[in-house]
Amino acid sequence: MITGNFPNLRLRRSRKNDWSRRLIAENNLSPSDFILPVFLTNGKNKKQSISSMPGVYRYSLDKLSLVIDKALKLKLPMIALFPYTNKIDKNKFGTEALNEDNLVCKALKLIKKKYRNEIGVMCDVALDPYTSHGQDGLVKNKYVLNDETVEILIKQSLLQAQMGCDVIAPSDMMDGRIGGIRKSLDKNGYKMTQILSYAVKYSSSFYGPFRDAVGSKNILKGNKKNYQMDFRNSDEALREVALDIKEGADMVMVKPGMPYLDIIKSVKEKFKIPVFAYQVSGEYTLLSNAINKGFITNDAILESLISFKRSGANAIVSYYADKIDKILD
Ligand code: PBG
Asked: What Rg do the C-alpha atoms of the chain give, in angstroms?
């Protein structure tokens, strides 16, 4: 790449003025780039703060329109639902996941009745909000069983589709679940329901605040290393994506976000499919705490979000999505 020589060429010429910097900007953000995670809780009249995530709340169903109206106003294309499940509703099989009156199902019915197709709704497929041990699947001798778990995830996905979910998002990292889910959706008349696979999900310490938000933090026994990916690996990430595309994934997610920009970039370059990044709870809390303490300025948020676009992400799941008007301003 020949771009010229100093002093004929001075790259700083184009950086001198704001209008010029805007003209040559290679990446930009708009609200259409964002997916907003929404935490649900039982009860009435609740907008509960979450101690480990400043500025993020759990909403009871009667308060849900607060956050959805906001998302619509900002023109966010989609929200992602995550339930806080009461302890009494959890057991080692995670059966609450298949209860058609669980929080997610009730929320889906309500949202689709009130908002129709004005906003997309995506749901996590995994058992961790519902199991008494906090793992994403069935556990036997400390091992998370694959095929037995997939059978349940297929049912969980179908139930979500029946309740009106637009985008089924398996975040469990079991092998073969995308194919199983696609087949069952098609067989049951949901051939247009999309699948966003968390194809590359690393076993990460950055999920801590999320586990607090959904109430699985203090009950989680051990870690998730026998199913989520090892963060020392990147070739393996490409194999995961290749498999999920073959099995029918419409879009794939890389998660967490900022420590894995290299993965986003190589997935995008290799497969040319929609790739989403998840700026996870730990990233959000780190940034927000540092800003709240005055150690870094607000601009750090925009900088972190642009990095996802630069690496090739089509969209970003972020707890900042409902504050995006102020961030882009
Ligand atoms: C559960 C799930 C997790 C997240 C999204 N879905 C946590 C986990 O795997 O333990 C994390 C999101 C975040 O940290 O913001 N399958």
From this structure: 20
Instruction: Return the ligand 1 atom nearest residue 126 CA.
Output: 16
Alpha-carbon span 9 to 6, nearest angstrom: 5
Dist. CA 154–CA 184, nearest whole Å: 7
Does residue 39 line the site of ligand 1, with CB under 6 A?
Answer: no
For 187-226, list the strands marked E by DSSP: 194-201
Closest ligand 1 atom number to CA of residue 228: 9
**Residue 209 belongs to what H/E stretch?**
helix 208-213
Tens digits of residue pLDDT in 42-91: 999 999 999 999 999 999 999 999 999 999 999 999 999 999 999 999 99
For 76, the token pair is 């966010």
Provide the whole-model pTM: 0.97
Instruction: Map out the domains of the chain with their CATH numbers.
Output: 29-328 (3.20.20.70)
- The verdict on whether 255 is a catalytic residue reads yes
- Summarised one tens digit per residue, pLDDT across range 15-24 is 999 999 999 9
Tell me the C-alpha distance between 76 and 98, whole Å.
29
Residues 6+ apart with CB under 8 A from 293: none
Return the amino acid letter for 4: G
**Cβ of residue 216 lying under 6 Å from some atom of ligand 1:** no
